[in-house]
Design a protein that fits this description.
mainly alpha, globular
Length: 96
């Protein structure tokens, strides 16, 4: 993968995260949401918050673990909103 392709993927990922942040309604959840999404797409066998924390913030794994746990614990309505937004933004992008 070339630099141009990597930048394109990064910009699409950032746009997807911004769209999700717009539906959760809390700006303070933007970073944990971004990190959680990043953890989901990064390589790694386990997709629980502990390995995600180690991948997304290797220098502050314990604090990141707590942040991701808090974010995941707040799901409910947030998850339903994100799934709807993800379907609106993600499906057309995948179909390209």
């Amino acid at each position: 993968m070339g630099l141009h392709e990597a930048k394109d993927i990064e910009s699409r990922f950032t746009a997807l995260c911004r769209g999700l942040v717009s539906v959760i309604g809390h700006a303070d959840r933007a970073v944990p949401l971004h990190d959680y999404c990043l953890g989901l797409v990064m390589p790694g066998e386990r997709k629980s918050v502990e390995p995600m924390a180690a991948i997304t913030a290797p220098g502050r794994t314990a604090a990141q673990h707590q942040s991701l746990l808090h974010f995941v614990g707040q799901r409910g309505l947030v998850r339903r909103r994100c799934v709807g937004q993800g379907a609106r933004d993600g499906v057309p992008a995948i179909e390209r």
